[in-house]
Amino acid sequence: MNILIINGSPRETGRTTQVTRELHKSYQSSFLDLSQLSLPIFTGEPHQYEIEEVKVLTEAIEKADGILLATPEYHGAMSGALKNAFDFLNSAYFAHKPVALVAVSGGGKGGINALNNLRTVTRALYANALYANVLSKQLVLDPADIVEKGTLRKNAADGIHELVNELTLYAQVSKQILEAKQNV
Fold first, then answer.
1. Do residues 116 and 138 touch, judged by C-beta distance below 8 A?
2. Which ranges of the chain have pLDDT less than 50?
3. Which of 9, 41, 141, 166 has its CB 3.0 to 4.6 Å from that of 145, i.e. a possible disulfide?
4. What distance in Å separates the CA atoms of residue 142 and residue 29, rounded to the nearest whole number?
5. Helix pair angle (15-27, 154-182), 10° resolution
6. What pLDDT does residue 71 have?
7. pLDDT score for 108
8. CA angle, 96 then 66 then 6, to 5°
9. Cα–Cα distance between 101 and 136 in angstroms, integer?
10. Residue 126's pLDDT is what?
C-alpha cells in the first residue's frame, strides 16, 4: 500500500515540514516535500509538464494509493505552494483515491480555513475540482501539539494515527474496487 504524505509548506524549517518529515519516518510512507521541490509557477503551457520537478510531482501522485495532505494556514487558506502544485494536476490523478487532510496552524483557532479550502479544491462534488475522495475525518495541529522538531504530543499523535489508519483502510478498499472493475 503506497500512502503518500505531501508537505504543502514551502518553508524548510516550518512546523508543517517538521511534522510531515516525522510522519514520513514513522509511517514509512512515500513523501513529497514542497519545501524541497522547486515547482515553477503554473502557467498552463504544455512545455511545463516536461520540467523534471513537475514530473516528480505527477509521478508521485500517480503511484499513490492514498494521500495525506498537510498544509500551514496562510491568510485563511492552504499554502500557495500547495495550490500551485494542484494546478499542475487534474482529476485523473485523484479519481478514486482517498485523501486525508491535516492543517498545522500557527496557534489560536487557525487551521480550519485551510482545511475547508483544501476540501473545496480536492473534493469530488463538482467538475473543476480534483475529484478526490476526501475523508470526513480531518485534523488541525497547533503549536501546543508539537513537542519539538515535528514530534507530536500523545493526543495529537493518536489523532494522526487514527487518521492514517482510516486513510489506509479506504486506500485498500479503493484499490480492491478498482482491481475488481478491471477484471470485469
1. no
2. none
3. 141
4. 23
5. 60
6. 97
7. 67
8. 125
9. 9
10. 59
